[in-house]
## 1
Amino acid sequence: MSSDFDTAGSPATETLVVNAKESVRERRAAQIQRVGDHLKREWQLYIMLLPMVVWLIVFLYKPMYGLQIAFKDYSIFKGVANSPWIGFEHFQTLFSNDQFLRAVKNTLIISAYGLLFGFPVPILLALMFNEVLSQKFKKTTQTIVYLPHFISSVIIAGIVITAFSPSAGIVNTILGWFGVDSVYFLTRPEWFRPIFIGTGIWQEAGFQSIVYLAAIAGVSPTLYESAVVDGASRWQMMWKITLPSILPTIIIMLIIRIGNILEVSFEMIILLYQPATYSTADVVNTFIYRQGLQGGQYDFAAAAGLFNAVVAFILVMTANAISKRFSRTSLW
Amino acid sequence: MNLNIRNREETMRILTLPMAMLATTAMTAPVMAQDLPIVDEPLELTVHMHWPRAQGYGPGGDTSVLYPVEEFARERTNIHLIDQTSGRNTKDNNEAMNLLLASGDLPDIVGGNRIKQPVNQYGPEGAFVPLNDLVAEHAPNIQRFWDEHPGLQAAISAYDGNYYYIPYLPDGKYGRAWFVRQDWLDALGLETPNNVDELYNVLVAFRDNDPNGNGQADEVPYFARDWEEVLRLMTLWDARTSGSDTYHDFFITAENTIAHPYAQDAYRNGMANLAKWYAEGLIDAEIFTRGSSSRDYLLGENLGGMTHDWFASTSGYNAALADKVDGFNFIPFLPPESAGGVRMEEHRRIPIKPDGWAITYANENPVETIKYFDYFFSEEGALLANFGVEGKTWNMVDGEPVFTDEVLNSDTAVNSQMYLEGAQIYRGYPQDYRYEWQWTAQAARDGIELYDTQDLLVDQFLGVAFTKDEQEIYDRYWPTIQTYMLERQQAWILGSGDIEQDWSDYIETLNNMGYQKVLEVMNSAYARQYG
């Protein structure tokens, strides 16, 4: 080893180190000063931020402490901290259960179909609303498609059950005109997913289109004006201006949607399913509801819920990474 | 959905009692005199009282007002109950109980509906006081009730052999009954069906012969509010559908062991016939989705012919629909004789409820508290708990408590009035059937008297208390097995499977899923508790 590099103990180096430390100290003081100034200047903004931060901590971070019960033999009376640890037992029980695996499969299938058929509809609706010229017509149709969103799931389920009733339902009545025998749709496993996904689209598509309408409203009018000057048709403007402009919104919405892929609206499933349709309708959340909460098995339910969250997290990260790579739009 | 709520009811499984002891009918024997007041100086005890009609100890949950019953009880006992109810903003009693336990701040008394499961789970952990010795020493009236109704005390015990709550004990024997449109039978010149074959002919006639006379084949021969009630038809082929008042429950076999009705050979036969009836249109085609309003709709529209439902509420339609449906006469009839020649009514009132009240570890006056609980088992206290304050809502007439005309003729149902008085609420007390009989419709009274002429009721499961290990086995296997059973059941009824072909696979699958292991823990717990 050459002596040129052997300088660690020399006085010169020591001075250098001391100086460096000193400058860090000075810089730190300056930094604190700067932060203080910044706070003094912008305190109103932080006050406004505060409620949201508190909300996040109280409702999302603090409950994470309780997640540990997924690994414990939980007793409400003993409390979270005093219940004994049991490791991965709940997870073993979960994955040795065929019905749980079936529920995971059903969740993924229902979500995938929901995404495939449900995701494009609000975009199409927004594009269509954007092209409507008569304000009166536009407002009327918007109100009609928003309306189902504001009706409670219980009532929606009632409407669906009535509509698909084999004796008096409108669907079977119409099928009857064409000589088709009436079908008891809600007890047929093969019909559950189409009915459930269709109901979801009908209920939410209108309301979800608001986001895209807002994004479309934000597109600069000068783009359209110059396109008109260049002689572009409405079709071309939609493809070349509107869609590319709202693409970031679409992608963000898609990522969020993928993050929620395991969160099938399970209250609707509970209202619509029957043991006869469990084979296609039973999702993770309904499984937890039936199995876990039956006897107050919160630890078991927490394990299933944790599994749900981990899968959702992986899905969001993947979607985000893919989107970042190919479109440079991403959440992070 | 109904199904899920019901099944959640109890993890503590259910256990049986010989028929004779099931008659918890009116406690008429004279009762030991109690030293009243219980304490000389007023003693305040805090109470959690959460049940469907009131979330809090006060009329309709309004804790700023005292129940008239509470006022009276204060005067007599000198014990003042002070409300300290958790979860007053939710109607979900599970949630309220969890909030209470998780808060760690337990009041002196915890009461309400479905407290058996939590009390038996957390009692042995130290949250609640075991009552065996307290009752034996200080509560002569409760003790006398146990002595007169052997088996009930065992039925509420936890796995450690102690019991931790004083239950609400319903009175009266009959729950649901078979109802038929007598005016339809008359219109078609038919007799009341006496056995399963005659019943078949009646239902076919209802389907084909237009008993409602509107020229359309729109009649629904058999319907039910809860789809599970369609299963009761299987009892006509000597199968069982449940051993308790909870659907799909275990039952006691002739050998005094526990088994599940859906794994019996009789079930195979019953289901094959049930599926046949469904396919022939004798059973409401929409039985699984029509829901709880089906009785209103099918009776109101003059479409439904027969059902299996509660005596009192179903009889009420005769008055309610008298103007709307000409000649409407929907009355109870005896269970038809089964293929095996047995008349059996599977459903009956459960003699003991998971509701009532318990003493917590935080209570510094357990002796006074158990004496207070005992007061409501004394003659005076039981009348108070059933009918309200004497002279206000009822009077003693020839030795019988009789509601005032004002109460009986009110637009509000008698039970709803009682709830506001502080009577018939879910404290631990023995219910007195005389309370209900006074405002039961005539058709139901006739029906109950008819049912009383025969020996129709069967042994009932009242629950077993599992040890921790047994509970684990049960929780691990049972929910999955039951789900599978119900899936197959509906498939067979709907005709998307043939039970005769599927049977051996079905039984094999049950065993693979752990059915035998569940039976094992059921039976060991049963033998320990009742052996």
## 2
Amino acid sequence: MPFGLLKYGLRQQYPAQHQFTPSKKLKKHYDVVIIGAGGHGTSIAYNLAKYHGITDIAIIDKSYLGGGNTARNTAVIRSNYLTAEGVAFYRESVRLYQGLSNEFDFNIMMENRGQLTLAHSDAAIRSFRWRAEVNQHLGVRSELVDRKTIRELVPNLRLSEDARYPVLAGLWHKDGATARHDAVVWGYARGACQRGVELHQLTEAQGIEIEQGRAVGVRTNRGRISCGAVVQAVAGASSMVAKMAGLQLPIQSFPLQAMVTQPYKPLLDPHVSSPHVHVYVHQTSRGEFVIGGGSDPYPLYHSRATLDQKEKLAGSVLELFPFLAQARVLRQWAGTTDMTPDYSPIMGLSAVKNYFLDAGWGTWGFKATPICGKTMAELIATGRVPKLIQPFSLERFYRFEQVNEAGATAASH
Amino acid sequence: MKQLRCPLNGLRNISEFIYGGEYHDVPDYRSCSSRDWSEHVFFAETKAGWVIEWWCHLPTSYWFLVERNTVSDEIRRSFPSSDLYQERVDFSRALAREKQSE
């Protein structure tokens, strides 16, 4: 139980605190180099330092801490997936999220809002029933709910029969939540840096050095680093970084666009998503409506906005919440999503020894941050692949053992 | 709206098209290994820069190739697949052969 808040309340002075490693020279060698200072990279470093006693770590990033897809996701946490492998993995992540503020002694603003997915067709109801059964079997709170329950959960949702796609039923996932995504990466980075991990921003990986099939170093814009192991955790650039290690991945990278409205009084508790009209929306504690779900129709390494996608997003959200017609859009952005053919991540070993993959996080990376860091750290420290992530190895594509979660994502692809 | 030149139908709105994946050499299904085939099916280069890719004009179901930049989103040219493929794949004959060998 953290007493940080109590201590803070009793203080007379509030001096500025340095949370992260101050800028300093790169050492010549580290035990582990992590490429990518986002949620995943810092979570791996934190878990290695705190639970495995490995602290000689450099986290390098060509930009700044949490400036990539960690800052660009829509901060949704849920575990209502379809496959047993997926549900078990994300369930553990949701559990870890629940205790993360205590773990950090730092508020990640976790909110157990619950998540409601809408069915607009009989086929969707069938798949929701299936998901609810799988979820309940594995201890995840999901249930099929009727229109009356939906009305109680979200009184402002348009349930009219005259809608283009009337809402028929819903999948209510009580474990669904949101958290402040920046706070998650700050909490991990702070905890890692306190234990001796070095954070090096503006340090771009430019090449991976491989000797006799083993990763031995990383070339950066600030010089060469030799190391015992390399981890890539670079959502949005996975294929490019893997290529430096001579690896090809089953990934295509698409922009995903989102936007935020002006703030309103609190009027929407759960996170609401509709795979049918391709939109998901929730209201933040600041009152803004976060609207996402517009995957671009073709791959691109660019975070530009397009009017086509913004129009589509706006049109879709008005189907569900017509009162938002008056809302002004405050911000819009895009992030590059590394899509795998089965909508599951690629984690674990690669063909290069001591080169570890944390990739293929498409639109499901933020919710997996805690469990990804925990399991990847265990793999790096022990050399054994934890059972929870064995199904997500790159090798699954050669064995035709995909973990198909295409039906359990809300974004449009 | 962004537009794309279809070799069959001319310049059309990009919403009339669907992206069909990177162009790469197809391994010979008669002789390649299962590993090669899974790479052909699932893996991609996902290069940053100029690439050649498959597109389809949906209303006419016409598949063709486009040279596009995956960073700047510029389109340099589009051309019919007959520029690259002259040989017709005869699936019926291949199937019959397989049946024979069984």
